[in-house]
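Hi there. Long-time user, first ticket. I'm pasting a complex I've been working with (about 706 residues overall). I'd like to know whether the download I got is complete or cut off, because the file seemed smaller than I expected. Thanks.
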Amino acid sequence: MYAYDELDRTLINERVEEFRDQVKRRLSGELTEDEFKMLRLQNGVYLQLHAYMFRVAIPYGTLSSKQLRRLAHVARRYDRGYGHFTTRQNIQFNWIKLAELPDALADLAEVGIHAMQTSGNNTRNVTSDQWAGVAPGEIEDPRIWSELLRQYTTLHPEFSFLPRKFKFAITASAHDRAAIKIHDIGLRLHKNAEGETGFEVLVGGGLGRTPFIAKTIKSYVHGRDLLSYVEAILRVYNQYGRRDNIYKARIKILVHELGIEKFAQEVEEEWQQMRATDTALTLDDTMVEDIRSRFSYPAYEKLPHMPEELKKAAHDPHFEAWRKNSVALHKVQGYAIVTLSLKPVGGPPGDATADQMDALADLADKYSFGEIRVGHEQNLALPHVARRDLPELWKALDKIGLATPNVNLISDIIACPGLDYCSLANARSIPIAQELTRRFANHDTANLIGRLHINISGCINACGHHHVGHIGILGVEKNGEEFYQITIGGRADENAELGNLIGPAVRYGDVADVVEDIVEAYLALRERPDELFVDTVKRLGVEPFRERVYATR
Amino acid sequence: MPLVKDGKITGDGFVHVADDAEISGDGAILISAARFLQDPEALSRRSGRTGVIWPNNRDVDDLVPYLDRLAVVALVFPTYRGELRATGQVLRDQFLFMLRAGFDAFEVKKPADAEAFANTVRRYSVFYQPTGDGRMTALHRRMMLRHSESANP
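Hi, the file is complete. Here it is re-exported in full:
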């Protein structure tokens, strides 16, 4: 956990007071909705179809039990008793009243939570691996650098009015759980020959109307130069990024139009010029150590890998079904990382009720040193569970509906809020996801299919990351009717790729049938049971799937 | 129009001179970019102070050779579709960002707002970025606090 100090707390409180003043001026009519729009967007407040939506940051996906209880409180007191976890380590409340927003923010500020820059054309919440600090084989905890970036980008005067939104993600593991290749800037922590920490810097990734996988701009930037290098990128983007056309304003378009070499050269020139005149952004070791020192780690016990409790529980097939896909290895022997599916059969992906949040906070205190993580797949995790406690924890999670045994399986679906909430959407996402979870509710079938990610977006803005779903589903509108384009072969990890369209868009009522056809084709085509769906698509291309889906349509 | 400068309300000492009006050798004036670029050498060497009103879509490189000799560069915030900048106003909420990004002074549209603008400058006491405005960053303050703690155990 990162403990905010007096300075961090002061800034958050000052931000709350500023926002309180802004809301007051809006309610009195002193600010027009147009003027207020930019101000509220700086603070995560959108106007949706039915009400204001409030997006709260969970920087690098780390929450304390105290913070989770406070989110539950906000859901209960100011909303309708639930929250929605997003693909960028945020939580959204859909029914908040404008007049009450400053109080909600003030309540959150008491536990070090804020909503700064969760929307608007600025540097957004810095996201990271939800297993940061506990994943086996991780080079070092990327959250130290995430926090440095969080501070550096918070209320940055030069980058609070960028051409468009700007997102960072950072990982320190070989397997990328933070989807860094679909971010404006992706950072992969690694060490140079001298053993010094630095980063491969990737730039220009992003989904939306014009999707791109990020390209490497520099293979190694020393940790001390991270902020100045990032600033050079932001400066070049801020200067040349297009403000005249919202569809061409993201850095990915600039990188694409200039070409990565030319863009890299521009950045290099800016960076060298900055460094020649000013070293203020250079991080010295003591600053990094100061941030590091405020991350606390649990006092782990010496525990066996295979305790009696676990051996005994292995006879229960329900427990085993859950354990096999929810429990991951921890870097400390005797402990486990437990993923909690927020994808119950028939439920909207990523939603949690206030009661679930409170109950989970208690379980985190009891079993996970009071810590909870939030991942971009819209699931939660308990990062430090003693393996001997797994059977007990499972029973407790099952009671509160957080033990659906489908993590990474076909019903572990990412979906945006879609037309049920969002004013941008062309089509519904949630009911499609709900129907698919019912179709694939049989655990044995889902297990037979194996790892398969379905991502659903209700419009081209791609909040549901459909381009990088193993199966991607994009809602579009044709003559007032909802249609869905289906892509296959996308992925968001270290081998990130964009999916390919299998054919013409299909009707709302046909989507689940089409997905079933694709899955059946895969089961018939795969070489071995452990050849993943994406690998089969990679090997064979789209054609055999297209044939199967459209032969009878 | 009143000017909020260095956190205080002051008068504007510069006279706006229209493009077709006479320019005398002395006196503090503000002229358009177009007028200035007609004869930048002479205009930047007037004995009086010269300021240029620069549209933000114009390449600043054209102005760079004369920057040393100019007293004021007044950046214009023009109309963009639908966005806040569109109205040409500077909201008090943007004021501190702009001060930190290198601006020194602002024209305030309504005289009644000048006080609110001046107060906005004091809204924040913690800053995370070094920007050249002299405000100490949180990282540096922490280092100092640490240092003083270790000096006085």
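A couple of notes from our side: Residues 3-122 of chain B form one domain. The beta strands of chain B are 3-5, 8-10, 15-16, 29-32, 50-55, 72-76, 105-107.
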